[in-house]
Amino acid sequence: MLLTSALCVLGWSRALADQPAPAAEKPRDLTGLSLEELLHEEITPINVLGSHTHLKGGIMVGYRYMYMDMSHNLDGTHEVSPQEVLNRGYAVAHTSMSMEMHMAEVMYAPSDRLTLMAMVPYLENEMHHLTPAGPGVTAHSSGLGDVSFMALLNVIGDPRAKGQRVVLNAGFTAPTGSIDEKMMTGAQLEYSMQLGSGTWDLLPGLTYLGESEMLAWGAQVIGTVRLGRNDRDYRLGDRYRLSAWTQFKVVDWFGPSARLDWHAWDDIHGADPSLNPLRNPAFDARKQSGERLDFLAGLNFYIPKGMLKGNRFSIEGGIPIYQNLAGPNMAVDWLITVAWSYTFR
User: Are 213 and 43 in contact (CB under 8 A)?
Assistant: First the structure.
């Protein structure tokens, strides 16, 4: 289903791109434009990790806020109520969870074909519980997450011209996020409430970008490969992500986008010895795998001239159209991202 949907998005985008384009003042070759004027040529939606490149000397700073809401449990593709979870013998069930992320990012291009980036996340998580005696405590965790670094290498195509390109993604995350988050009682929190992986992780990927006068499209495959085990004797499961998108250039300061985003993740290897899997399904390292396909729509606003030239404001929100979880565990209801960036040299 994912492959068919992705091919439909890309095929529709390419078909529109092949239509004769109306006369426009924008030059086909972008070498004569300043980096600030290039901003309105950005061709990827927000939240496509490592798909945005810059020309030599370009610097970008940015901030993004991400929110994810979860208010139901899934076992496979079937919804399970909190009471049903308790009826299976668990002492704790989850009723809702929210995850927030504040991320600061910076990018620098030492050459036209190479862009370097760093991302620093700050996480805030909240989870509500139900016990046989009634509502349980509300758990919180917050703090610095795992810091990421990535190099984006343009391997095919001209970064200064419209057309098609392929970008190689090579990154890693450092274990800066805590894996020792606890409840007020001192009990260890669930794996999903921790702030980091506790391991060094690789971020390999490949991104395809296409662009015409009025349309942009692309696809990306990227993974997270966990290395070793952390100090609590486990390793989070590897993650896989495939995205396909299209973006219209309505005017030089505005472009809507649409995206399909598939995620899959493996079970945890090993286990935290302080978590009893018979008490809480989110404590069970063998029930943490799953996959999800999201549909997302976005609005992208650019400021190509004037005192605020170089700024970009974006919003993207969506819902899952398919989820399959090893469970019962919390499933996503909706998610949204709001972002700002400023490009200069």
Answer: no
d(CA 250, CA 255): 5
How far apart CA 34 and CA 30 sit, in angstroms, is 9
Distance CA 329, CA 263 (A): 16
- Of residues 215, 221, 213, 222, the one with CA closest to residue 246: 215
3-state class (DSSP) for residue 58: coil
Q: E strand or H helix at 87, and its extent?
A: helix 82-87
One-letter amino acid for residue 222 of the chain: I
Task: Compute the residue count for the chain.
Answer: 345
To 5 degrees, how large is the angle CA 200–CA 207–CA 258? Answer: 110
Q: pLDDT digit string (tens) for 161-175?
A: 888 999 999 999 999
Q: Are 318 and 293 contacting, i.e. CB atoms less than 8 angstroms apart? A: no
In eight-state DSSP terms, residue 287 is G
Write the burial class of residue 187 (CB in 10 Å: 0-12 exposed, 13-18 middle, 19+ buried).
Answer: exposed
Q: Output the six-digit token pair for 201.
A: 């992780």
Query: Which structure tokens are listed for 156?
Result: 């095919």
Q: What CA–CA distance (Å, rounded) separates 335 from 67?
A: 6
Q: Do 334 and 326 meet the contact criterion of CB atoms below 8 Å apart?
A: no
- Rounded to the nearest angstrom, the gap between the alpha carbon of residue 289 and the centroid of all alpha carbons in its chain is 17
Closest CA to 316 of 256, 263, 252: 256
pLDDT tens per residue across span 7-45? 444 554 444 344 444 334 443 333 344 443 444 345 577
**Hey, what are 7's tokens?**
């091919």
Cβ–Cβ < 8 Å for 295, 337: no
Instruction: Classify residue 184 by its DSSP letter.
Output: T
The pLDDT of residue 331 is above 80: yes
Residue type at 334 in one-letter notation: W
Q: Cβ atoms within 10 A of the Cβ of 24, count?
A: 11
Higher pLDDT among residues 52 and 324, named by residue: 324
- Write the CA distances from 181 to 26, 146, 310, integer angstroms: 53, 14, 39
Tell me if residue 237 falls in helix, strand or coil. coil
Write the burial class of residue 209 (CB in 10 Å: 0-12 exposed, 13-18 middle, 19+ buried). Answer: buried
